[in-house]
Design a protein that fits this description.
Low-confidence stretches: none
Structural class: alpha+beta
Helix content: 25-40%
Largest sheet: 3 strands, antiparallel
Amino acid sequence: MSPRPKPAERSDTIPEYRRRDTTNWYRTDGVERETYTVAEAAAALGIGLKLAYELTRTGQIPTIRLGRRVLVSRATLDSILSGGD
């Protein structure tokens, strides 16, 4: 049995169209977004996804629900990052 390849080697086997750009947690299409997903908010805050969902569930991070989507406003993120509630 051959040893398992390292992650860098495995990424070479993923077709280019299936690769995700993980250099930025935000979209860079030139449009400033007003809302972010919980995963994007977690990345901006430097916390894990599980903790981010827990904080949204308890109301410590206010959210906006659109159908099944749970979004965090940019104003909320700016407030948290500047030290406010």
